[in-house]
Amino acid sequence: MPGRAGRNRTRDPFYYWNRIAPTKPGAQALAAELGLDTPAAGHSRTDFKSGILLTRYPIRRLIITGADTPANYTTLLGPLWNIKAADTIKQTRIEVLLCPPPGSPAHTASMHMDAGAPRYAPRGPSAEEEAELNEVRNMQQRLSGQMGGRSGSDVESSDIKEMIMRMGGDWDTNLGALEAAVNNTVQGGERGKDKP
Predict the structure, then answer these.
(1) In angstroms, rounded to a whole number, what is the distance separating the alpha carbons of residues 1 and 23?
(2) Comparing C-alpha atoms, which of 117, 114, 113, 116 is closest to residue 50?
(3) Whether 99 contacts 195, CB under 8 Å
(4) DSSP character string of 123-186
(5) Mean of the pLDDT values across residues 135-158?
(6) Which H helix or E strand runs over 83?
(7) 177-187, pLDDT tens digit by residue?
(8) I want to staple 136 with a disulfide (CB 3.0 to 4.6 A). Which of 103, 105, 162, 180 is the partner?
(9) Is 10 within 8 Å of 19 (Cβ atoms)?
């Protein structure tokens, strides 16, 4: 049924952010308050913000400004945000709460998305998030030990492979923490670049 598929697509957070939110006065007002550039209604996927059309852009802005409430997610991402964007929200909250240092890949990636934000005031971590942050920090210490005297240089694929091998049978449950640790580690080519 084409009609049914179309209705489901319009409720997808990606579609909603790119096609519906720009036409809603409430979404336009919230986006303006948060300093978000919204896609213009009817633009193609490549027309806006150098391809940052993913729902991660408005999600990150809601998180860094402390405005990440269910009502605001619904306003920008539509009614299915809590089902379809939950993983992105969780991952982005952890990334923000880690406060990536200048020179890390996560910091470099965030610079573009955070430009124009009116404030940087994320909510503090929940108990569950604090446990996940501790996992990532522990993984960062293990990664630092793996890199030895190369601290501040690029994390190499051999470092990651060795870390995965050392995880043994738990490698799949620790992969998210390892990815976050690598992304939040200062790398040689990015050292010294500051966040605007």
Answers:
(1) 26
(2) 113
(3) no
(4) PPPPHHHHHHHHHHHHHHHHHHHHHGGGTTSPPPHHHHHHHHHHHGGGHHHHHHHHHHHHHTS-
(5) 74
(6) helix 81-84
(7) 878 887 877 77
(8) 180
(9) yes
